[in-house]
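look at this stuff:

>
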Amino acid sequence: MMKEIINQKIVKGQEILYFGKSLFAVCLVLGSLCLIGYLTTRMKEFAIGGYMLLIFGTFLNLLVILGLLIYGFVYRSRLNECLKAIGILLINIPIAILYTAIGLNSLH
C-alpha cells in the first residue's frame, strides 16, 4: 500500500516535469522553424509567424507558469516539481530574445 502511494507521487511529479519539457520543446521547435525558415527563404510569412509565436507563446507560457505556481501552492508536496517545470519554461526567455534579435537584424 505505501509503495503504491510513493509510486503515484513519483509518477505525478514526472507528469508535471514532462508537461513543462513538452511545452518548452514545442515553443523551441516552432521558434527555430520560423527563424530558420525566414533566414533561408526570406519569406515574410516566417517572420510574421515568428512574431505571432512570440506573442501567443509568451501568453501561453505565462498562463502555464501561473497555473503551476497556483497548483504548487495548493499542493505543497508538488511545489518542487512545479518550480522545476517553471525553470524549464523560463529557459525560453533568453532563447526568444536571441531569436528576436537575429530576426530583426536580418530584416531588410
Notes: The mean pLDDT is 90. The radius of gyration is 17 Å. Residues 69 and 82 are 7 Å apart (CA to CA).
